[in-house]
Amino acid sequence: MTRRRIVTALLVLAVVALFVLPLLLDGGTSEYGGTDAAVTEELEADGYAPWFDSLFSPSGEVESGLFALQAALGGGVLGYVLGRLRGRRAAAPGAGEQ
After folding, report:
1. Within 13 Å and on the Cβ side, how many CA atoms surround 96?
2. What percent of the chain has pLDDT over 90?
3. pLDDT at 22
4. pLDDT 10s digits, 59-94
5. Of 53, 31, 34, 30, which Cα lies nearest the Cα of 42?
6. Which is more confident, 30 or 73?
7. Could you tell me where the DSSP H helices lie in the chain?
8. Which terminus of the chain is less hemmed in, N or C, by CB atoms within 10 Å?
9. How many CA atoms are closer than 13 Å to the CA of 4, on its beta-carbon side?
């Protein structure tokens, strides 16, 4: 096993540990609520009212799926643009002379 593979494996394990350890140390006692819900509750407690109602209020699963779709589309566009820019640089005259 090469040094490069060992470093890669250790980095992957470190990233996984960053996600798993807080969940294990917490023991499931806290609620992982979003900041949107916390701020909404705080503002409504102070007497503020929303300016308008939402046109479309999906269920939690649908909302989560729409957010994931938005993230995937954004990642796809970003990947396309970066690949296009890299291809332009590679195709430019004199790119391989350095």
Report:
1. 3
2. 44
3. 83
4. 889 999 999 999 999 999 999 999 999 999 888 887
5. 34
6. 73
7. 3-26, 35-45, 60-91
8. C
9. 0
